[in-house]
Design a protein that fits this description.
It is a single chain. This protein is α/β, with parallel strands linked by helices. The protein folds into two domains: 234 residues, Spore Coat Polysaccharide Biosynthesis Protein SpsA, Chain A, CATH 3.90.550.10; 86 residues. A seven-stranded mixed beta sheet has the order 3-2-1-4-6-5-7, with helices on both faces. Strand 2, helix 2 and strand 3 form a beta-alpha-beta unit. The longest helix is centred in the C-terminal third of the chain and has 30 residues. The chain is elongated and about 85 Å long. It starts with a strand and ends with a helix.
């Protein structure tokens, strides 16, 4: 039986592009959800009045909920209609709908639970990306690796995504960030489920739309939220669900490093004020904890990088179902 693929399109100030985006969506998609996020340009009404595609259903928000809120509405609609794979495509015509099969294939093939675009795969094409965006995405990608645990991913703010419905229904919809932090926050939530996420190469494309995301304005907010997600992820994965050698390496590394830095700094200030060189034993007593702390932290980091989920969640459930049927027989 073929998988049922749904596409949802969040709409906010995309009046000039939304109809073109819908027209480009191929026959492999059986349902299209247009989520009008209280768009001031009435994008959803334009679709209702001018789009004759029978696959299209428009969902209206009475108030603006941000991209995260629009995505949650799209997920809910697809789950209620019992779709198999849900694809998110923006309505500004900067994402090529012809790539939908590329995003769906790893999920249908039980290789991934969630796929997302990566505009940095082709190093020649990323020259088209504005330098400010290039730098901002590099910084955000680095922070996302720490907070989400998906060290194999890049371009975290890319909104071209696909997810298996069985995985989407287990996401905590009410807890996921509603605004610009949505794409990175959902990665943290997926890691909590131990879902497999893979990048799908795509070209960077920029039209006449101006991004509302200003890195300078959200950097502080993003750093705070990344820090919170990192702490929660470490607690969930290394202390609540399981205890491993890495669970000891992290606190030992932090304690040794902090002790070495403060002990060495205290005696350095004292010896500088007195004009007397520090005793070699004191220097070693400060240096040794620092070196050991760094080694413990690097060991933990190596373990964390190697712990990226590799077994698709939805395949595991299907396998369990098959095994249960065999037992019943």
């Amino acid at each position: 039986m073929s998988s049922k693929v749904a596409v949802f399109i969040p709409c906010f100030r995309v009046r000039n592009h939304i109809l073109d985006v819908i027209r480009k969506i191929g026959p492999e998609v059986c349902k299209i959800y247009v989520v009008d996020d209280c768009c001031p340009e009435k994008s959803g009404h334009i679709v209702v009045e001018q789009c004759a595609d029978p696959r299209v259903m428009v969902v209206f928000h009475e108030r603006n909920q941000g991209v995260g809120g629009a995505v949650m509405s799209g997920y809910r609609a697809a789950i209620n209609d019992e779709m198999d794979v849900i694809v998110k495509v923006d309505g500004d015509d900067q994402m090529d709908p012809a790539l939908i099969p590329d995003f769906v294939a790893p999920i249908i093939g039980a290789e991934a639970d969630y796929t997302k675009g990566n505009r940095f795969f082709d190093l020649e094409r990323i020259r088209e990306m504005p330098r400010v965006r290039l730098f901002g995405n590099a910084v955000l990608s680095f922070m996302t690796k720490f907070s989400s645990g998906y060290w194999n991913l890049f371009d975290p703010t890319n909104g071209y995504t696909a997810i298996h419905c069985d995985v989407a229904r287990h996401l905590p919809f009410d807890k996921i960030s509603r605004r610009y932090f949505f794409e990175t926050d959902i990665l943290f939530r997926l890691n909590s489920l131990r879902a497999v996420v893979v990048d799908v190469p795509m070209d960077a494309k920029y039209g006449d739309e101006v991004s509302n995301l200003k890195i300078s304005k959200v950097l502080g907010e993003f750093m705070l939220k990344h820090s919170k997600n990192f702490i929660k992820r470490i607690f969930y994965n290394y202390y609540l669900r399981d205890i491993s050698l890495a669970s000891l390496e992290l606190p030992l590394g932090v304690l040794l490093l902090v002790f070495g830095v403060f002990f060495g700094g205290y005696h350095w200030v004292g010896s500088s004020s007195a004009g007397v060189p520090a005793h070699p034993g004191t220097v070693m007593l400060a240096a040794l904890p620092i070196l050991m702390g760094i080694q413990f932290l690097l060991a933990f980091l190596g373990y964390d990088i190697a712990s990226v989920p590799v077994r698709p969640l939805h395949r595991s459930r299907k396998t369990v179902g098959v095994q249960r049927k065999k037992v019943e027989v």
